[in-house]
Specification:
The complex is a heterodimer of chains A (117) and B (113). Chain A is mainly beta and 117 residues long. Chain A is built from no helices and eleven strands. In chain A, strand 7 and strand 8 form a beta hairpin. The N and C termini of chain A lie far apart (37 Å). Chain B is mainly β and 113 residues long. Chain B is built from no helices and eleven strands. Chain B starts with a strand and ends with a strand. The chains are: A mainly beta (117), B mainly beta (113).
Chain lengths: 117, 113
């Protein structure tokens, strides 16, 4: 039973380019969360998605960042026109349940380490 | 919103000793408290969690306690081993967080042989 898959594991972009990060949840999990970890810091929530729906994007920067979780395929976190401050580790987590009122065991992927030159 | 504070930021113990990491939270409606272990270059690994309807949970050398009145919870690792060396994160979640986890700042645990 494969865990949460993320790719690429490392991504290098120049300022102004686009970054696309992919996440495949664990089998049977329909809830996906994205978190960002800046160097020497904890994890900060970005966005929570279910299939074809964004449930909570309160942690997403207002500009340049977007996320989707289509009916088929992985969840995608997209960062347009990257800047050096976007350099961080981006983690995806999946859960079999989600939302208010549920205990959300979240299982994390290995992360994508984005470096912006 | 919810705020989670974690202490200490670094902890060094001798192999075989116990280690305790403490977290406090601000939202009394939070009801789920997981602990994660993160090794260098890897993703966080869920090691134990506790729900607000119990005060203590144990799994071999790891235990977690929860004091809802004081709004704090702690991770206890007994008989520490060098492979326990990692960064540990506490988190809180509940109705008001809508499913997302609010993390503490992390504790870097070093177990010296």
């Amino acid at each position: 039973n494969a865990g949460v898959m993320q790719n690429p594991r490392h991504l290098v972009r120049r300022r102004g380019q686009e970054a696309r990060l992919r996440c495949s949840p664990m089998k049977g999990h329909s809830h996906v969360y994205w978190y960002r970890q800046l160097p020497e810091e904890g994890l900060k929530f970005m966005v929570y998605l279910q299939k074809e729906n964004i449930i909570d994007e309160s942690g997403m920067p207002k500009e340049r960042f977007s996320a989707e979780f289509p009916k088929e395929g992985p969840s995608i976190l997209r960062i347009q026109q990257v800047v050096r401050g976007d350099s961080a580790a981006y983690f995806c987590a999946s859960s079999p349940t989600g939302g208010r009122g549920s205990y959300n065991e979240q299982f994390f992927g290995p992360g994508t380490r984005l470096t912006v030159l | 919103g919810e705020n989670v504070e974690q202490h200490p930021s670094t902890l060094s113990v001798q192999e075989g000793d116990s280690a305790v990491i403490k977290c406090t939270y601000s939202d009394s409606a939070s009801n789920y408290f997981p602990w994660y272990k993160q090794e260098l270059g890897k993703g966080p690994q869920l090691i134990i969690d506790i729900r607000s309807n119990v005060g203590e949970k144990k799994d071999q050398r790891i235990a977690v306690t929860l004091n809802k009145t004081a709004k704090h919870f702690s991770l206890h690792i007994t008989e520490t081993q060098p492979e326990d060396s990692a960064v540990y994160f506490c988190a809180a979640s509940g109705y008001n967080q809508g499913g997302k986890l609010i993390f503490g700042q992390g504790t870097e645990l070093s177990v010296k042989p």
